[in-house]
Design a protein that fits this description.
With 261 residues, the protein is α/β, with parallel strands linked by helices. It is built from eight helices and nine strands. Helix 3 packs across helix 4, helix 4 packs across helix 5 and helix 7 crosses helix 8.
């Protein structure tokens, strides 16, 4: 039985028109992401990782090629609420409680109050924030705020989670803890996750596949299938298998610079 492609990009190009002339952000990007995959995108700053994620989310519009989300255009996928999006910053409204921050998309979508309360309670439990619904963002640590942001993206139960460096601003200890929690969340929900990161250990630890991208114009230079088991304690990062994958990612990043124009 063939696993369904949830996201499929073919010959994707994106050129931004600027006052200084055209900027080629993505060139000939081809990738299929299957249901239940955890795919990380890694590459140097400005290589198009976030741009590619934003194309999936209908926040940027390709100038060439094609991209499909659940078999339809990103615009149709957005309208059908196919994905949740987690940004680099938690983006919580300081005047709304954590519960009411999480409920905001549900309120906009017109869910009934009882359903909203049930969904907020469920996703708070998923991200280990039960009991914090009545707190305000400023009363939570940075890591807890980002977990609330993830809960908000999960609140309407989309099958796809798009995550743009959600832990990039956090210290290493907090980041490690959230990496563990994200893997547990993925195991419990079986979401399809596309995850942008600058961290090689984070990409290797989290992913079923690692997509290595070159400097602008962004191209895929390597796609690495992870042989690691789905259950991964943090100390797996000391294993020979982990270090071998990390070495290949690092080589791919170096090789990508050979394409730089």
């Amino acid at each position: 039985m063939t696993t369904q492609n949830v996201i499929s990009a073919k010959g994707l190009d994106l050129v931004f028109q600027t006052n200084d002339g055209p900027v080629h952000a993505l060139r000939d990007v081809n990738l299929d992401i299957k249901k239940g995959d955890f795919v990380s995108f890694i590459g140097p700053s400005g290589c198009g990782k976030t741009t590619f994620l934003r194309c999936m989310a209908d926040l940027e519009h390709p100038t060439g090629g094609d991209i499909r989300v659940n078999g339809v255009s990103p615009a149709e996928a957005r309208q059908s609420r196919a994905y949740g999006y987690v940004f680099q910053a938690a983006g919580l409204y300081p005047w709304r409680t954590i519960g009411r921050n999480i409920s905001l998309p549900l309120e906009i979508m017109g869910y009934e109050k009882r359903d909203i309360e049930a969904r907020v309670s469920r996703v708070l439990e998923l991200v280990d924030l039960s009991g914090f619904a009545k707190k305000y963002p400023w009363q939570l640590s940075g890591g807890m705020q980002q977990r609330a942001s993830i809960a908000r993206a999960l609140s309407f139960d989309a099958d796809i989670l798009l995550m743009d460096e959600p832990f990039g601003a956090l210290d290493e200890i907090v980041r490690d803890h959230l990496n563990e929690q994200l893997l547990q969340l993925w195991a419990r929900t079986n979401k399809t996750i596309a995850f942008v990161t600058h961290s090689i250990p984070e990409a290797v630890y989290l992913s079923t596949r690692i997509v290595v991208m070159s400097p602008r114009p962004g191209r895929i230079t390597d796609i690495i299938e992870s042989p690691l088991p789905r259950e991964r304690p943090l100390d797996i990062r000391d294993s020979p298998e982990f270090l071998e994958i990390a070495h290949r990612v690092r080589d791919g990043l170096r090789a990508g610079h050979a394409y730089e124009e």
